[in-house]
Amino acid sequence: MSRTPAPDPVGHALMAFLRGNKDATLQVRLSVSDEEEQLPASYFFRSLWEMPELERTALEECRGYVLDAGAGAGVHSLELQARGFQVKAIDASPGAVQVLQERGVRAAACHNLFDAPAPGEHFDTILMLMNGLGLVGTLDGLERFLQHARTLLAPGGQILATSSDISYLYEDEEGALNINLNGPYYGEVEYQMTYGTEAGAPFHWLFADAGIVQDYAETAGSDVEFLGEDDQEQFLVRLTLRS
């Protein structure tokens, strides 16, 4: 019996754009908002100079063999390839991986972030951009990933990731935070993506503030260096595993 493919709205939106539909757009529902947001597929195909400064800084800080996690349409992988880096791009979306391959990413694979590495394969840099630390899903996922990264990284390897503090979403009119301290961490957000009539399964995405990242990383045995912050509470961090 053939198995029905899982919905892949992100992959199909990226493929539609690649095939010429420049208006392809994803609809995004978030648990922290009552309004549906629009995410143009074109954003996944931006040029180097259309990238935020934090992303350009991260590309400058890459070294060695790079794992581009959550690679999307490959804007970061392709830029690094052009600079002479060996890059492996992974994404959980089969459609995105097809786009990566068609756009010329030399090593692209459909993998979850927590999949085991290939035997003998170790990376010098794990790159996680576009609020990419969110791929871990939850605080439990962050703890799990920081341990899993030890199986992925070569000695002295680094993680370059962006994340955001979204506490501002919980401010009242006086600027006080309205957060349930007994509930889940406020940065654990549930997403659902839709392209046309195709709705993907809901998934968790983590927006970890700088203090959380530092605490969890140091507990896991990583050195922490913050490399920049923008005016939207997004920051770039380097986590270097101690031996």
Label the structural class.
Answer: alpha/beta
Intertermini distance: 48 Å
Large-scale geometry:
globular
Number of strands: 12
Helical percentage: 25-40%
Q: Helix and strand string, N-terminal first?
A: HEEHEHEHEEHEEEEHEE
The description of the largest β-sheet is:
7 strands, mixed
**Strands ordered across the widest β-sheet:** 5-4-3-6-7-12-11
Rg, Cα atoms, Å: 18 Å
Which spans of ≥5 residues are poorly predicted at pLDDT below 50? none
According to CATH, what is the topology?
Answer: Rossmann fold
Question: Could you give me the name of the CATH homologous superfamily?
Answer: Vaccinia Virus protein VP39
Content of β-strand: 25-35%
Architecture, CATH level 2?
Answer: 3-Layer(aba) Sandwich
Mean pLDDT metric: 93
CATH class: Alpha Beta
Pfam family, one: Methyltransf_25
GO molecular function: methyltransferase activity
Protein name: Class I SAM-dependent methyltransferase
Keywords: Methyltransferase, S-adenosyl-L-methionine, Transferase
Describe the secondary structure blueprint for this structure.
Elements: H1 9-18, E1 25-30, E2 37-40, H2 53-61, E3 66-69, H3 75-82, E4 87-91, H4 94-103, E5 108-110, E6 123-128, H5 139-152, E7 153-164, E8 188-195, E9 198-199, E10 203-206, H6 210-219, E11 222-229, E12 234-241
Parallel strand pairs: 3-4, 3-6, 4-5, 6-7
Antiparallel strand pairs: 1-2, 1-8, 7-12, 8-9, 8-10, 11-12
Helix pairs in contact: 1-4
Structure description:
With 243 residues, this protein is an alpha/beta fold. It has a single domain, classed as Vaccinia Virus protein VP39 (Rossmann fold). Helices cover 25% and strands 29% of the residues. The protein contains 6 helices and 12 strands. It has helices at 9-18, 53-61, 75-82, 94-103, 139-152, 210-219, and strands at 25-30, 37-40, 66-69, 87-91, 108-110, 123-128, 153-164, 188-195, 198-199, 203-206, 222-229, 234-241. It has a 7-stranded mixed β-sheet with strand order 5-4-3-6-7-12-11, sandwiched between helices. Helix 1 runs parallel beside helix 4 (94-103). The termini are far apart. The model has no long low-confidence stretch (mean pLDDT 93).
